[in-house]
What we know:
The protein is mostly helical. It contains eight helices and two strands. It has a two-stranded antiparallel ribbon.
Amino acid sequence: MTTTRTLSLSLLIPLALVLAGCPTTDEIDHMEHQPKGKPYRPSSFFADGQLMRSPPTDTVPLEHDDGNLIGIVPDGGIAATSATIPYKVDADFMKLGKSKFDMVCATCHGFLGNGDSVVAHKMSLRPPPDITEAKYRALPDSEIFQIITNGFGYMNPYRDMLSSKERWAVVAYLRALQLSQNAPAKDLAADDIQHLNNPPAPAGPDSENRHE
């Protein structure tokens, strides 16, 4: 019995010494436990008792990137210095807008902007609207740009995903979508009218596009 107790102690003592030398969680992960301030928390460090600080005077705002003509003004509102798209709307600009619209916006608004998407069908509370409707066509370019930048309702802001130029390109492409979904037949070319009246037949079972 004495021999067994001695053997147990001889094993426990080295184990205790080893465990005593192991670092604690605080010593391993310093990022988990660090002094930091969180938004909207009070602070005794600053005279006004607020932790969140206003940007210093004359500093460059986050939105000051290429072509940005809309920025934050001191009273918290939005100052629009351009009511229309401040870029040359050419084929390359429209391609950029389509690419970003299909990547970011179509997830909710659909590829035609009509609100027909998988996400929209699952949002029973307030699905994304059809942004080709008349009330959205009547909005100025700058207001659409602001909505993309700052969000609206359940829509998140996308200023962190799209640059100013990309947001303006999305506005330009949206204008093209709005026109395409509401263009009267008299504005269509003869070839387009013929194509609409005689759509191609659906591919049959022997089509070369069939997947085996």
